[in-house]
Amino acid sequence: METLQTYLPDYFFLALGLLLFLYMATDGYNLGLGIFSLAARREEERGLMIHSIASTWHASQTWLVILGGLLFGAFPVVYGVAMSALYIPVMLMLAGLAFRGVAIEFYHESPNRARWGLAFGLGSLVATVAQGFTLGGLLSGMPVVERQFAGGYGDWLNPFSALVAVGGAAGFVLLGTTYLSMKTDGELRDRALKTAVMAAWAVLAGLAVILLWMSLQHREGHYSLLSLRQGHYIYLTLPIFLFEFAMLLRSLKKAEQDKPFQWSVLLFLTLVVGIAAALYPMAVPPGLSIFDAAAPPRSLWFLFAVSAVLLPVMLAYNAWQYLVFRGKAGQEDKPEH
């Protein structure tokens, strides 16, 4: 039992990585679709976009809630440090998500749909950029002294986190447009596929710039993700990423039905695996490990028992939900003029 207990921090590190991927893959396309909706040519198009996610966006956000709860329970020190360091982008993210959610609920009930459609797009954009700065701020490194954040409240605002925010926004637009290509036909689908191609190249360019930035920082003796013990592991995922990228472009060129979205999701999975492999065993880089930040053993055992039951149930429910609401967003679901 004691031997198994030593692996509990590893389990929660993997569980948090899985939850991060599930959130990115599910709510990512919702946010990306919201950003893409800002370029809608007619309000009818924006209404169709909103309807295409109306039945699933609630469940997508639950992964973020579970992620925050599990982080607080399993690694309370990390939660405290992260909230101290990233308070501003986290609050902006929550405001953007709330704004987007209200817009979705009010859109079809309001006589002024254009106003709520704009709120849907802007809320999605704010939430996406804030999430990018949150992840970038974490990966930038946080000074921790005696298990408390020892930096400034503006440390998250730096060139590296800005690169992550821009790349993340391009990635979410890629997910959103490939998802939209599954749900629609005609001119809107064609524009979604063209935008997906541009977003895919933007993701690749962003990743290249981020890796170049980290390499230069590491070479000059500054901290970067590559400075960690396993930081170079992120390079091991590059061949897989490039293969998936090539297959994504191929499926977009052939205008396939489901494949572009599936390859886009796999790209995100590869990125999350690469980041997790590079970080391990750091919880807050560069100096706070998951073993130093873990909760007491009794708390970890309780969370383990709860998560072992809860996560499979949530996965099954989400899979069932997406199965029920699969298929095209029909003409009858478009808003009337």
Gist of the model:
The protein has 13 helices and four strands. By secondary structure, it is mainly alpha-helical.
Describe this structure in words.
By secondary structure, the chain is mostly helical. It has one domain (9-326): Formate dehydrogenase/DMSO reductase fold. Helix content is 74%, strand content 3%. It is built from 13 helices and four strands. It has helices at residues 2-5, 8-37, 43-53, 57-74, 76-85, 87-107, 113-139, 159-183, 186-219, 238-253, 259-279, 290-293, 297-324, and strands spanning 144-145, 148-149, 282-284, 288-289. A two-stranded antiparallel sheet has the order 1-2. Strands 3-4 form a two-stranded antiparallel sheet. A hairpin with a 3-residue loop joins strand 3 (282-284) and strand 4. Helix 4 runs antiparallel to helix 13 (297-324), helix 8 runs antiparallel to helix 11 (259-279) and helix 10 packs antiparallel against helix 11 (259-279). The chain is globular, with a radius of gyration of 20 Å. Mean pLDDT is 90; it is low at 331-337.
How do the helices and strands line up, and which of them pair or pack?
Layout: H1 2-5, H2 8-37, H3 43-53, H4 57-74, H5 76-85, H6 87-107, H7 113-139, E1 144-145, E2 148-149, H8 159-183, H9 186-219, H10 238-253, H11 259-279, E3 282-284, E4 288-289, H12 290-293, H13 297-324
First and last CA, distance: 65 Å
Amount of beta strand = under 5%
Helix content: over 70%
**Tally of domains:** 1
Largest sheet: 2 strands, antiparallel
Question: Which fold name is given in CATH as the topology?
Answer: Formate dehydrogenase/DMSO reductase fold
**Structural class from helices and strands?**
mainly alpha
Query: Average pLDDT across residues?
Result: 90
How many helices? The count is: 13
Rg from Cα: 20 Å
CATH class: Mainly Alpha
Secondary-structure element series: HHHHHHHEEHHHHEEHH
